[in-house]
């Protein structure tokens, strides 16, 4: 349930804090006082679109934060763990939305930044805001199906079916894609074979393109390379007094010096060690010279080989251009792909038959689950239709008839059922879809009835009704109030209302009002005491909070609520 709500710098709200109670909460106030502003702010936590015009002071951020009790809501801790968020084992969960200067918006869960999708995914499992525009959902087939599934407790079965349907669609797509590919390939079989043979004859090697270009560069510049090698070898080994000879002479001289000096004292230079180091350097220089000589001998002007390389590269360039690829490695990949296509063509009938069997097997698995889903829906729909009729009739619809029609269609993500809620509100009236016959008030009462039935099974901890009683009065209004009160025995209910009979049924009563100061008009809210509540109800009844008759009427309404609670 919602434990508390904080709103700051939003529309007419400078700073506002509400502590809600379990059970039935009532919010009242004059038209324009700001009740819809509070609801709009709360809808931002459900991922609603941020209207930056609603930010009161454009230079400061606007904050909407709610604390939810998540005990008994197993899905939310799972989402927290899945997204590595804190609080999975805590009793409360804090959701926050911030509208920042400059137009940006941020979302937080337990003070950790999250995406708007994660915030919405958690919030929709904690609270349902039922406003007037949501009445249109009653004519929506997906919503109708979700109601029946909820009552049939089909969530686990729907997940199994959804996985099976996905597997079927995947297998079917693989079959159709392969079939279409084979059809295209059959038409182009000769051309595919020609392309493959052309590439296969080339005997392509990995990295060949770059290797040939490097060899061509070498063969083209043999004279320059040899000249440069000679320049490097001359001082090292080619000249009579080259570095290797001179280093050998230096080593001999140091060896003689070492024999003359004998073993060195601690502070003397170790000439023998220097001689050994110099000998090592001479060997390294000589090895470098020999390597350069070998390299020099290995290369030579070879016009025939250069022609071969140029011809091979020319063929590679031509094929790469023809097939729109970058190098020989890409040509190898293309060759292998063409080989696979030719192999598939050779056994196309067998390949297609195997894929068709897999698709049919997957379809059968999905269809079996769809049948089970449909049977459960049919049983639930029949019972739900009767309950809906019985509960809705006392709400000013004595002639209501209801039928939930399920017809079989194609396999779809939700099964094969096509659903329609059919209603008749008058005697001798034909059953028709709800959108074609019901008035706004009738649809509103039907939606309240549906919510009351679903609330007994749903895990959703809170529901908010925004003036669901608009357009009704008298006994019907009282019955709607009793229905909301009954819902509040299962989950938290917050109701915004203008009717005193509804307002009197709540366990906690909040009043929204506007207050002026020297700078601006601000929206405020406060929890009413018993005396304040009586005065507020009198105001709603007569327009005068001090009217004796209205006060007596208000007291009677509150006494009736107390008696109902004691009886229940």
What key attributes describe this structure?
single chain, 568 residues, alpha/beta, 6-stranded antiparallel beta sheet, 6-stranded mixed beta sheet, 18 helices
Topology diagram in text:
Blueprint: E1 2-10, E2 13-19, E3 24-28, H1 35-44, E4 62-69, H2 75-82, E5 92-99, E6 105-109, E7 112-114, H3 116-123, E8 127-130, H4 141-152, H5 155-187, H6 189-201, H7 208-220, H8 222-238, H9 243-261, H10 271-298, H11 303-323, H12 328-346, H13 348-392, E9 401-412, E10 415-424, E11 432-433, H14 440-455, E12 462-466, H15 474-487, E13 492-496, H16 500-503, E14 508-516, E15 521-527, H17 530-542, H18 548-567
Parallel strand pairs: 3-13, 3-14, 8-12, 12-13
Antiparallel strand pairs: 1-2, 1-4, 4-5, 5-6, 6-7, 9-10, 10-11, 14-15
